[in-house]
Design a protein that fits this description.
The chain folds into 2 domains: 324 residues, Ribonuclease Z/Hydroxyacylglutathione hydrolase-like (Metallo-beta-lactamase, Chain A, 4-Layer Sandwich); 49 residues, no CATH class. It is 28% helix and 21% strand. The protein is built from 11 helices and 19 strands. The protein starts with a helix and ends in a 6-residue tail after the last strand. The chain binds zinc ion (2 copies).
């Protein structure tokens, strides 16, 4: 406990100092970028860029255990290109940005994913990170970051001004302190440069959120005409605040908030961003049933091409005018509650409407387990293993036992 207290107050003091400095420095949010640029010239673009282009080309999957064979190498880029890598870390976020020899890592997936992220960066020839962003304290975002920071130098760390009580968060803060990087509270309006590209913090706009997700650091990254909106797990409340503050404009690529959950990507937000492409960071068969139907339907209605990291890394490369991806967009699908149906084989159109389930009987039995469920239970058996009962008594008389979770 004493250690933790000291650590937290250290961070608070550091953040207070940074706040003061940034307040004194200038009213112009771009000011820090100008002073930073000389510091990073030590990373010569000439040696770094070839490493990046060559890396994934022949070795294909940097994270071999995670990556399906469908992953293709990023397109060759010039020094003026911005690369945005949405790394497949299973259920979680990890996004790597690189432009003109400067780099940013946003999140590093769950605990245990740090090594995979490091391996990916190693394949790209990345030796140090100019910026690290821990969007918010949930483990599927900062879980792997301690491992990354223990092995790779970082200059600046942006994180929201909120604490969490988990060991994962403690480990993350320990690693931030130990790595010697400057830690900044991510303030709306803060901006900087990655080579020719610029980034700006759009959220969190408020405080005292009940959901940690709304503390997510949201970044807009631009090169020329092409822009990326990277939203962490920001939910509808944060989206509304950004809209109300006039911070949201059209973006070419939207990384959907909260893994495609219905908590995020409100219609108003999506309409304002009006992206050409959407990326969802998520793992196959995740227990949250991400991405949610509501979100997928919005994407379909707006005819937005979408990429799922569960089908492999997604790499976007732009010269500021054109944008290319390392592979074709994915088919928009979402999981349904029937546990035995494979997620990928379910085109949206063929899904049974959920509301039809209760009409077939008040209780649903599982022919294999001889348990019976309410139609709303999350553990309903596959269609072929179902038997329907009109009453609880009928199920009991047939020798079925009530499910322990829905307690019919
Ligand atoms: Zn979260
Ligand atoms: Zn998350």
């Amino acid at each position: 406990m004493p250690i933790r207290k000291r650590r937290v107050s250290w961070l608070a003091a550091l953040m207070a100092l940074m706040l003061l400095l940034s307040a004194c420095q200038s009213p112009s949010v771009t000011a820090p970028a100008t002073t930073e640029t000389p510091a990073t010239t030590e990373a010569p673009a000439t040696t770094e860029v070839p490493a990046t282009t060559e890396a994934p080309a022949t070795t294909e999957a940097p994270v071999t255990t995670e990556t399906p064979a469908t992953t293709k190498p990023p397109v060759t880029m010039s020094t003026a290109s911005l690369e945005v890598h949405f790394i497949d870390v299973g259920q979680g976020d990890s996004i790597f940005l690189f432009c003109g020899g400067e780099s940013m890592l946003i999140d590093a997936g769950e605990n245990g994913k740090g090594e995979a992220v490091l391996a990916y960066l190693d394949e790209l020839g990345i030796k140090e990170l100019d910026y690290v962003v821990g969007t918010h304290p949930h483990s599927d975002h900062i879980g792997g970051m301690d491992t990354v920071l223990q092995k790779m130098a970082a200059k600046k760390v942006l994180l929201p001004d909120v604490e969490h009580t988990t060991q994962t968060y403690e480990d993350f803060i320990d690693a931030v302190i130990a790595c010697g990087a400057e830690a900044f509270p991510a303030q709306v309006g803060y901006s900087g440069r990655l080579g020719e590209a610029t980034f700006t913090v759009l959220a969190p706009c408020g405080e005292n959120y009940t959901s940690l997700n709304n503390y997510s650091v949201v970044l807009r990254v631009e090169l020329g005409d092409i822009s990326f909106l990277l939203t962490g797990d920001a939910e509808a409340l944060s989206e509304k605040e950004m809209l109300n503050a006039g911070l949201v404009s059209q973006a070419t690529v939207l990384k959907l908030g909260h893994h495609g959950s219905s908590t995020s990507t409100s219609q108003e937000f999506l309409d304002r961003v009006a992206p050409q492409y959407a990326v969802i960071c998520l793992g196959q068969g995740n227990t949250y049933l991400h991405p949610h139907r509501e979100t997928c339907e919005k994407l379909e209605q707006a005819d937005i091409d979408a990429f799922w990291t569960q089908n492999g890394h997604v790499v976007a490369i732009t010269n500021g005018r054109e944008l290319t991806f390392n592979r074709a967009p994915d088919t928009i699908t979402y999981p349904v509650k029937e546990e035995d149906k494979p997620v990928q084989d379910l085109p949206v159109q063929t899904l049974p409407p959920p509301q039809t389930l209760p009409d077939q009987g008040e209780y649903i039995g599982n022919l294999n387990s001889l348990k019976f469920h309410k139609p709303s239970c999350r553990s309903l058996p596959a269609e072929k293993n179902r038997v329907y009962f009109e009453s609880r008594q009928q199920a009991v008389n047939a020798g079925y036992e009530p499910c322990g979770s829905c307690k019919p």
